[in-house]
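To whoever is on call:

I kicked off a structure prediction for a single chain this morning and the downstream step that reads the tokens threw a length-mismatch warning. I double-checked the sequence; it's 160 residues and nothing unusual in it as far as I can see. Pasting both halves so you can look.
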Amino acid sequence: MRIRVVVAITALFCAISLQPAQANNHTTTEITPPCSATVKKSVLATIIGQTQYLGKRDFKSAFTFSSVDFRKGISLPMFTSIITTNYGYLIGAKQIQITECLVIGGAPHMQVNLKDKSGTPFSMFYVLQKQSKKQLIAPNKTGYGISGAEIVDEAPQESF
């Protein structure tokens, strides 16, 4: 199951990466570039920052690592409910490692491996947006906000 899902996500990356473009009436193929080292560092800091605050059950601070567009569409109580109901395995997650980072449509898309608090590994796929200094809320100073996240493979069993 896990291999099929990872293959499907990889295929999705490839399908999105090869977008036809028109240039001087000729069809070309644009290759989606990997994230630069600077973008990768900032995006990873965003994911780590949110995960650390979730581990402390500080949902207000964790919410600051969401993109401004995400924050406009959801309240802090809704965010807290979504995390505790559907993403409880992120509370206490550790050992975050990048497996893939691509820039698609100007937005970083990152897949990371994590371990839940009991040590069970899982993978998450994140989409992030660049944030202006006005859009950032302390403690997030990374320059990015998380627009969306989903589990890549089967979620670990929660043990609260």
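Update from on-call: the warning came from a stale cache, not from the record. Cleared it. Sanity check on the structure: The chain has one domain: 33-151.
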